[in-house]
């Protein structure tokens, strides 16, 4: 049997006529989709990020600035009265969970007000929005942490690396805890729980740094290990949170 | 006016938001994509739905579309992926020949039977061979274009075609079908 003959045989398998109504519907739907894309246009990542800033409450930036001012005013004063190293540890370790706490109410909004459906019907999906917000808060926190470190180093005999660890370890631990609470606790209680946890964590670090010798004499290697451990936990928590949002999206899609 | 424009010019117009150019492009390729989806699924309704999805996906992905090969190959790649997704989502044992539908225009028993036998022959091929045979014999695509669509190299594509044709010839000989 030749290929030509085979081709002739294969063409005996005919296809039903096209439904003109379905063709028209396809054209209409595609044109609708095109118009939608045209309204939105294509925007860069930076435009996307800048666009999100206006949706974040200004109180967040005010609270972060207030925290900075508080540390700026307390640190020089406390350093004069007590041991400079312990004071630096106490102030930085106490302020870093509070710094992370500032963003919690904003992150919790989607859960508190059941905004999933609304956000999913919008231009970007929930995961993308949360990621953008996390990036924005992360950048803001980074600026505040750098400012705190530079300021603390001028008022403390402790090395910059040590100071960095005193602030980064509690900061990453606090962030992991807040994200865990936001994921586990439903409704408005999530923010309340995270706020309470943040205050307790902050007080805990303050007490620990003030009274525990072990905390004060922990070597730099020990601090690095703690930092990598807490950073690993935070990374896992962010990943779990995104899976959780993804499952939430699917759940709502199935329900609708 | 639209008939004079080639695919790249139409896509350029669509990029500028021209809905008429999109209509022209859909009208041009709808029949071919529909026939492909029908031969893959064997069901006119599913084929129509998948064809619609192909064009919606096309519009959504136009922003990222970079012209490297033939536009037609790009469309067939979307169609092939959607057909594979469709079969993946089907429960085992619920695929292909279960819902054979007679083409509306056919009213001669022999033609219907022949159509059925060819469909049966194609359904016996593994997907990787069936895709190549359909694209080569029903859509007259070249082997390099088919290789591009299925994401395989040229020698693999040739080998799949050869194996598929041998199986089909054997089947038709056994059925005494000529």
Automatic annotation (TrEMBL), chain A:
**This protein's UniProt keywords:** Membrane, Transmembrane, Transmembrane helix
Annotated source species:
Heliobacterium chlorum
What is the name of the protein in this document? Uncharacterized protein
Give me the segments passing through the membrane.
56-75, 87-108, 129-151, 163-182, 189-208, 214-234
What highest taxon heads this organism's lineage?
Bacteria
From TrEMBL, chain B:
Tell me where on the tree of life, at the top rank, the source sits: Bacteria
* InterPro entries cross-referenced by the UniProt entry: RNA_pol_sigma-70-like, RNA_pol_sigma-70_dom, RNA_pol_sigma70_r2, RNA_pol_sigma70_r4, RNA_pol_sigma_r2, RNA_pol_sigma_r3/r4-like, WH-like_DNA-bd_sf
Which Gene3D superfamilies does its entry note?
A: 1.10.1740.10, Winged helix-like DNA-binding domain superfamily/Winged helix DNA-binding domain (1.10.10.10)
Identify the keywords attached in UniProt to this record, alphabetized. Answer: DNA-binding, Sigma factor, Transcription, Transcription regulation
Any idea where the RNA polymerase sigma-70 region domain is?
A: 25-90, 121-170
**NCBIfam families associated with the record:** sigma70-ECF
Q: Which family does it belong to?
A: Belongs to the sigma-70 factor family. ECF subfamily.
Q: What is this protein called?
A: RNA polymerase sigma factor
Q: Which organism is it from?
A: Heliobacterium chlorum
